[in-house]
# Entry
Amino acid sequence: MRTLIPGEWYILFTCSQCKTRQILFPDLSQGRANLRATYKVECAKCHYTGKYESETLERYQHPPNSDPKPIYGIAFFALLTLLRKGGMLRLKRAGRSV
# Structure
């Protein structure tokens, strides 16, 4: 279990197999650092193990005015969907805002 902390940044990957977004790790650079690595990760939903280049990763900032949110695997994907519909989602890909 992880807790999304208001105002904190996270690095996300999208599973190549089932296309779900998942947290890879907290982004301690707050969306500023350039990532230059390949990450080998197992999907929490479908258990596919994929390799993800830094160019394919996304950055997510949990809205600063929201409550901390405990997440359990797939619950994170539902949270992303709700935040996106509410216009509160802030993602970056390869150094640009989405």
User: Anything to note?
Assistant: Residues 81-89, 94-98 have pLDDT under 50 and may be disordered. The first strand starts at residue 2 and ends at 4.
